[in-house]
Amino acid sequence: MEQVLARTLPAAEIVPQRLHAAMRYAVLGGGKRVRPLLVFAAGEVAGTHADRLEIAAAAVEMIHAYSLVHDDLPCMDDDVLRRGKPTVHVEFDEATALLVGDSLQSLAFQLLAQYPLAHDAHKQLEMVTLLAVAAGSRGMAGGQAIDLASVGKTLSLPELELMHIHKTGALIRAAVMLGALCGELSAAKMAKLDHFAKCIGLAFQVVDDVLDAEASTATLGKTAGKDAQQNKPTYVSLLGVAQAKALAERLRQDAQDALDGFGAKAQRLRALADFIVLRSF
After folding, report:
1. Which 3-state string (H, E, C) describes 102-146?
2. Closest CA to 16 of 75, 102, 90
3. What CATH number does the domain containing 222 carry?
């Protein structure tokens, strides 16, 4: 995946060099690559080729990377550390960080439009629409807006879930569905994958909240304890650590159950569900 991203990002020598260097700094050399892994794992279930999946995976990861760059800006979470190194606005400057996010988002959609990824044009347009919705006001950006508006407030569990279905879950769901759309699956199997994706999307955020409360900055590669410092509503602040861990485990089991009937082809999806939940406790 690192090689694919290095190849699809503009070279640092191309004008404007500073912007392209900053884009590469933001994307390369760090991160768990969970979303690209989900694209590949879902593509394996759908029986498609790696050359399609790697482009879809790169597009999803570029959207994710752009969201992290913007999320770290002073006007958002104002963080100085990401993936174990200075955030983009610290390493370069705030204006460059803003442009990095804008450029990565544009490049993601360029990739989805430029390469043949599906069996027909209609399905490829569906893929573009899926990622656009996941990244926009009805997905990730909307979830961030709800998050910012919720600082200092106490949310109910349904309200918290609604926020994170948008902020974190939407792009994880898009990763799974894009991988599946690169191949051929029945509507019933697509629905099962969709349910799997929604469960692990929520589980991912629950685990992140636990990690923020329990893990060190060195372990996370980003500043630990920021949620509590900023008085943000989290699964830990609402449920406590023990109940948050129990919720993550229930979501993991629901995700695993959704894969019944897929057989050995779903082995990587099952392993990723386990990784998402069990990576910390």
Report:
1. HHHHHHHHHHHHHCCCCCCHHHHHHHHHHHHHHHCCCCHHHHHHH
2. 102
3. 1.10.600.10
Cα(219)–Cα(221) distance, rounded to whole angstroms?
6
Give the three-state DSSP class for 184: coil
What is the C-alpha to C-alpha distance for residues 171 and 192, in angstroms, rounded to an integer? Answer: 17
Closest CA to 96 of 146, 22, 28, 160: 22
Query: DSSP assignment, residue 154?
Result: P
> 86 pairs with which residues across the strands?
81
Which segments of the chain are extended strands (E)? Answer: 81-82, 85-86
Q: How far is CA 227 from the centre of its chain?
A: 19
Alpha carbons 205 and 168: distance in angstroms, whole number = 7
Split into its structural domains, the chain has a count of: 1
| Domain that residue 91 falls in | 2-278
Give the integer Cα–Cα distance in Å for 144 and 147: 5
Q: Can you tell me which residue has the tokens 């009937």?
A: 261
Q: Tell me the chain's radius of gyration from C-alpha atoms.
A: 18
For 152-202, what is each residue's pLDDT tens digit?
A: 888 999 999 999 999 999 999 999 999 999 999 999 999 999 999 999 999
Q: Looking at the whole model, is its pTM more than 0.90?
A: yes
Instruction: Tell me the two tokens of residue 135.
Output: 């990244």
Q: d(Cα 190, Cα 130) in Å, to the nearest integer?
A: 14
The tens digit of pLDDT for each residue in 90-100 reads: 999 999 999 99
Structure-token pair, residue 97: 């960080």
Question: d(Cα 156, Cα 50) in Å, to the nearest integer?
Answer: 42
Beta bridge partners of 81: 86
Nearest to 26 by CA among 12, 47, 43: 12
